[in-house]
Amino acid sequence: MLKKCIGDPVSILPLEGLGVDENFFYEEVPVEIFDWQVKRLRNKEVATIKVLWRNHLVKGAIWEAEADMKSRYPTLIFFLLLLFKLEVSNCS
Length: 92
Fold this sequence. Notes:
Elements: E1 30-40, E2 45-53, E3 62-65, H1 66-72, H2 74-91
Helix pairs in contact: 1-2
């Protein structure tokens, strides 16, 4: 038998701050790139970047494949990776 759900008012977020459109669609937008690494598999290497998404906490940053991010956000990723690689080269 189903029971009535009692919601926690603290966990309810207003729709105005989330960027939800009139059809209730929400698009994730990358905000910052924290790290870049190359994972070595048996037969190939996969470049990955750690991305912080809008409306997520810093601990919610996840690793994404660089090729996928370049295809979805070509100008943003190119610019951010260029800055990140310049920072790394200046440190060494």
